[in-house]
Amino acid sequence: NMKQCYFSQNNIKYIDYKDVELLKKFLNPHGRIQGTKRTGVSAKMQRQLAQAVKRARFMGLLPYVAR
C-alpha cells in the first residue's frame, strides 16, 4: 500500500485517458476503480483518475467489466 500520492510523486499534473497501462494500475481485478484508501491517491487526482478511466471505457480502451 503506497500512502504517498502516486501522481504527485511522479510529478504528473494531468492524467491522460489514453495511457491505459497507467490506468490499469488503479483498477482491481474486476476492472473497477480502487478506492482512495487502497491507492493513496489525493482526492483531486482520484477525481481526475475516475474521469480518465470513464473516458477510456467510453472510447473502448478499457473494459467496463473484466471477465
Describe the model.
The chain is mainly α and 67 residues long. Helices cover 43% and strands 0% of the residues. The chain is built from 4 helices and no strands. The chain has helices spanning 6-9, 20-24, 36-39, 43-58. It is globular and about 30 Å long. The N and C termini lie far apart (25 Å). The relative contact order is 0.24. The mean pLDDT is 90.
Approximate helicity band:
40-55%
| Overall number of strands | 0
**Mean of the pLDDT scores?**
90
| Gap from first CA to last CA | 25 Å
Q: What sort of overall outline do the alpha carbons produce when their principal axes are compared?
A: globular
Main attributes of the structure:
single chain; 67 residues; mainly alpha; globular
What topology emerges from the helices and strands here?
Elements: H1 6-9, H2 20-24, H3 36-39, H4 43-58
In short:
This protein has 67 residues and is mostly helical. The protein contains 4 helices and no strands. The longest helix is centred in the last third of the chain and has 16 residues, at 43-58.
